[in-house]
Write a structure and sequence with these properties.
alpha/beta, 9 helices, 28% strand, binds adenosine-5'-diphosphate, binds magnesium ion
Length: 262
């Protein structure tokens, strides 16, 4: 088991932000999490990283019970890319140093890096089709380039779990497809980490994500094999609006059916 949650709830101000979450990820699976803004997706990820503790229930990540284990240590096995992380880096940091910092799961480079680390960091950039960015200052990178550098950073510690929280936010459709193609390739690597990909766009859910969890108002609405979960009627019920459901290649496009929507 990579991730295991049992009856996990998070309560703040007498309100359930997450409620009775039961979810597990087995080795070899890649998961997408789909839900509207405010559903609790990021909070769920923050729990996997040990930044938030459950008010009820328990969870294990990579076999360790969160709360009973040194999370700083565990976080080194978890790559994490999100827009909140994007803001943590300094304008003048060099892309390659940012990737290297992933080895220590820190923002700054506190520890010495070896020649081997440097080679590996360059390798990670190459995997992300971003080796040409190695010497660039962070502030000079476009949104898509930043994401690639940060995913390379996420790979630096050779994580067993890689969490991508809305990595395509702010990308145009071409840059988005390029990044998705890179993610698709990453997932096929022999030593690929387990991926968790969070989004509120169904068309970003690549077939490589074998499983999908629908999160609604802090609760698991449905979880299972992607082709069973991303069905027209369940998505329409999930979103509570009439939708137009379209398959394009191996992706699903959704929009509101304005003819039926009042
Ligand atoms: N630390 C917190 N204390 C109280 N409420 C929070 C906290 N963090 C997030 N929330 C609330 O929890 C809900 C879920 O937020 P979030 O996980 O960011 O949603 P998503 O990532 O699905 O858009 C939101 O209503 C948000 O305002
Ligand atoms: Mg979020």
């Amino acid at each position: 088991m990579i991730v295991e949650l049992e009856n996990v709830s998070v309560i703040r101000n007498n309100k359930y932000l997450l409620k009775d979450i039961n979810w597990s990820i087995k080795d070899g699976e890649h998961w997408a999490i789909y839900g509207l803004n405010g559903a609790g997706k990021t909070m769920l990820l923050n729990m996997l990283n040990g930044y938030i503790f459950p008010s009820k229930g328990w969870l294990k990540v990579l076999g360790k019970t969160v709360g009973q284990y040194d999370m700083r240590r565990l976080r080194k096995s978890i790559g994490w890319v999100s827009s909140s992380i994007q803001e943590k880096f300094h304008d003048y940091s060099i892309a390659l140093d940012i990737v290297l910092s992933g080895k220590f799961a820190t923002v700054d480079l506190y520890d010495e890096t070896s020649e081997e680390d440097l080679i590996y960091a360059r390798n990670c950039l190459t995997k992300l089709d971003a080796i040409n960015l190695a010497d660039r200052e962070y502030r000079t990178l476009s949104q898509g380039e930043k994401q690639r550098v940060l995913i390379a950073r996420g790979l630096m510690a050779k994580p067993k779990l890689l969490i991508l929280d809305e990595p395509c936010t702010g990308l145009d459709i071409i840059a988005r497809e390029q990044l998705l193609e890179i993610i698709r390739n990453l997932s096929k690597d022999d030593n690929a980490p387990t991926l968790i990909y969070v989004t509120h766009h169904t068309e970003e859910i690549l077939p490589t994500f074998s499983h999908t969890l629908l999160l609604k108002k802090g609760e698991v609405y449905q979880a299972g094999p992607t082709d069973e979960v991303l069905k027209e009627d369940s998505l329409s019920n999930f979103l509570e609006v009439p939708i137009v459901y379209e398959k394009s290649g191996d992706r699903i496009l959704l929009h509101i059916d304005y003819d039926r929507h009042v």
